[in-house]
Amino acid sequence: MKDPAQRLRLIALDVDGTLTTGHLFIGPEGERLKAFHARDGMGIVLARRAGLKVGIITGRKSPITQRRSEELQMDFCAQGAADKVTAMAQILEEFGCTWEEAGFMGDDSNDLGVLARVGMAAAPADGTAEVRELADFVATKEGGRGAVREWLEYILCRQGVWDELQEVFRNPQG
Question: The whole model's pTM is what?
Fold first, then answer.
């Protein structure tokens, strides 16, 4: 059987607890801050350079999340997804991918449905026990602290493109 990481064409990521630590900074007028790890961002950029479709599926709506998605030129940003399975199914249809060709990293109960269906399920080190038990890949790093980068690097290595992606930085003049 082929390595699940080698089949992946599309990566979806939860936000709170996965791309961030899960801390919510809420002021009197609503959400104020989210902290994203720069290495997770670089991992997303590299995955997109390798041809993977990468984006967000999150239950919350946040202009901060939208902005981060745009900064990283993500392929999709599904916010306010009360039913993440339905959101993922729509994204898969839009990009012509199957569940087996998709990976998802999430950290909590509302991610279980998608994690159970994708070709490769992933969790940050501090994901809930149920999520970690279901995951094919559990990062050594916590959410918002490089877990996404760790998983994406694993995928890109398994797909045999990591060294080529790094060469661009080692030898920028070609």
Answer: 0.94
